[in-house]
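Predict fold of FSA_C domain-containing protein; 561 aa.
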Amino acid sequence: MSNTMGNTTWLVRDGILRGHVQLDSKRQRSISLGFKLRNSQLSAQGGAISGDIEVSKLLVATRYTKSAEKPPESVAKLEFGQIECRVEWMSRPIFIGRFVKPCLIITDEWQSHAQPDGQVDEAVCMLKVNGSWDNLDMIITKNTTGDMIKIVDKLATFFNEQLQSSRMVWGDDLFVHLSHSRDNISVSSDETTTSTTTTVKPEHTPSASRSSLDGGNRLNSSHAHHWQRILDLVTDIQVKKKYLPLPMTRHGVTLVGGVIEFDAKRISLACMNGEINASSWALFHMREANTLFTCKSKYLFLDPECTEVGVHTEQKFIFKLGAPLNTDSAHFSECKASVCRVQHTRNFLMRHNTSVELCLDAMIGDVLKQLNLYAEPGQKISPARFTHNVLELFQFPALDSTLTTVQTSPVEVSRQFADFAMDVVESTFICEFHNAVCVQTDFNAQVGFLPELLKSYTLGNDDKASGSQKPPAEKDEDSKKEKQKRDLRQYVCRQWSVDPKIRFIDRFKWNPPVIDDVLRKLQIFDHRTTIPKVMQRGLLDHSDQLIAVMLECVVRQALRE
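Predicted 3D structure, encoded as tokens:
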């Protein structure tokens, strides 16, 4: 422990754990569990991994309610007062952050819609995730991602060694018993999945066809696999339970999916041009940001003869700047997001043991005070401690953007590449700006800072990944995994509507660049295909898989009741 995290201290104050269980003879049950914590501090000094994490006002609450003829109700809530974090790797600060009043609520939803004659035409099983926070401030370096991976590997190695030592002390009997218990749980879950899939297609199950294929032949997109598994489980519930009936109309459908929504009042990210003590950095700031991700999947016939079944998935990502309830034109004309280049002055000095609050105030708070973005208009604030050289590169007004993607994948994967039809992801992107986007006057000179900074972040991580020495066997295994992870989908943009008005920050009117020139200067070429593809791979696919994993746990629990 001393080599990994040095001298480690964990202090916890005023923790309360409460539980409530209500059962009756009619198989109705209500289980709730809550945990409150006033303060928690974790400090590590002198090791390879060091830093401080402080949590105030933690609340964890869960509730599960089940009645005989009603669908289950599951609710989970996680709430913090404030989180402050400072992470160091090899005595180098790599991350400093502060999270104010974050809150996360997860609920499930079971619904069925019927026609006037009483026949059910739609059954829905959804998972909803709602998150919000007041303020999120972060400072990162170009080595943050690579060093975080090293920290995770170091901690995993440390805990594995501790488990091995515990095995030697306590003996192997306890661990053998635990392994047998895990095997029994996995076998029972596999049996549940097998029985579920046989209800849909008894002769040839999709899960059997997938298991018969090796990793190199799994050419289909991954989203169809996990949604197919969940659709089969929900179908089993519809057959065995009464609270979610099967649609009986000609065009009846069963939908599964979820919603992820985050509402943020303020977000600030400082990307240092080097280490934490670098002389310049880029600051990204947003206010009144709202993101909404929705996904819906269903079974669909892929041919007119209704012989081939596929999974149809529709995803939608909505990003907004500006409060939706405020329709004042002056509100929309305000700057809701800003990108700045910051250079500190000569008298700026940040010591190694400076607190998290002082670091964030010096590198983010003082910059926002100079831009009059630190607080709402009319609020009194203290003057900035440091006067930095701040150059605004971009100013964004209130906006509404929507990215919609639709993809359909067959349930069964073809063995032959010649018979394989590449999945097509059809996308539409619409962005409406409520005012002009402002850019720096000397655009060619000033915008070069941002692409070079972002390139240094990506190149730094790539160099670390390629520079690591691995045995030939591990390199071959990594190459096989990379081939399996290749995205063979074809991306087609059906509609692209992004046409903001461009204005210079200092109000000059002549020769304003168009949005295509701005993206080209940022080294984003063929943006009508590149941006939807990056959003699909980096955000939509991961959000879709996260919802699928959580929803599968909820559905399996409901199936066991």
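Confidence is low (pLDDT under 50) at residues 185-189, 192-221, 415-419.
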